[in-house]
Amino acid sequence: DSPRDLLDRLAATPRTLAHLVVEADDPLLDLAVPGSWSVRTVLAHFRDEEYLAMRPAMERILAENAPELVFLSGDDWEPGRNRSRDRKDVILGDFALQRQASLNILNGLRPDGWERRGRTASREFTLHQLVATWAKHDAEHVAELERLVGETAQEAIARRARPG
């Protein structure tokens, strides 16, 4: 995918999440299928992953030469995560704000910025590859939310658009 396609996909995620959960009440938000996170936890993961992992990784790649990055494991994050800002409207608002901050940086990149490199203990990658992984991460968790709420975002939009 081109950088523009990736940025468009990342920009669409906050609206997609809002469409999926706008009608969800607390019992649905907190319903957890054994072995998976609740809707509320997935939403919080979007927000926290944005400002604790993905944007800091991007910023380090832009500021340093091939920094070694360590990403959070969801299993490590979830038990100790901050639950004090878990109201649906707060999570959605915080995520939209955090995502916009990330997009503001990415939208200002020169072409050579996309080729800057970062690494983990096991591999090296470009910022373009990191952003592609970021967009894939979004898509995987959107699909998870769609399964949990029982309809896709497009189905929810179409259902609400029907008269009566």
Structure description:
By secondary structure, the chain is mainly alpha-helical. It has seven helices and two strands. The chain has helices at about 5-20, 25-30, 40-65, 75-80, 90-105, 125-150, 155-160, and strands at about 115-120, 125. A two-stranded antiparallel ribbon has the order 1-2. Strand 1 and strand 2 form a beta hairpin. The protein is globular and about 55 Å long. The mean pLDDT is about 95.
Write out key terms for the chains shown.
single chain; 164 residues; mainly alpha; two-stranded antiparallel sheet; globular
Q: Count the strands? A: 2
Q: Calculate Rg over CA atoms.
A: 17 Å
Oligomer: single chain
Unreliable stretches, pLDDT < 50, 5 or more residues?
A: none
End-to-end distance, in Å?
40 Å
Number of distinct helices: 7
Morphology call:
globular
Helix content: 55-70%
- Cross-sheet strand order for the largest sheet: 1-2
**Biggest beta-sheet profile:** 2 strands, antiparallel
Beta content:
under 5%
Topology order in helix (H) and strand (E) letters: HHHHHEEHH
What value does the average pLDDT take?
A: 96
Structural class: mainly alpha
